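Researcher: Please predict.
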Amino acid sequence: MKFSVSPMTCGSCVRRITEALRGIDPAARVEVDMAAGSVEAAGGFDAAAVVAALAGLGYRAVPAGADAVPASTAGCCGTCTV
């Protein structure tokens, strides 16, 4: 499954997203492309679980092919100094 995710602004965002999805399925394959604002994940979860997990962290996730998520640095995870 591929998702557009916003906002992703730093390495902590990548880590938090990866950990959240591996929290659902520890064997999940998670690839985060911060520059493209995308997350590709394969594991024991469905799209709704991914969207909910990331929303709980303050990210907006939209499955690829749905309405695009605008790139933004507003609302960063709070660990960087952008």
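Model: The chain has one domain: 2-63.
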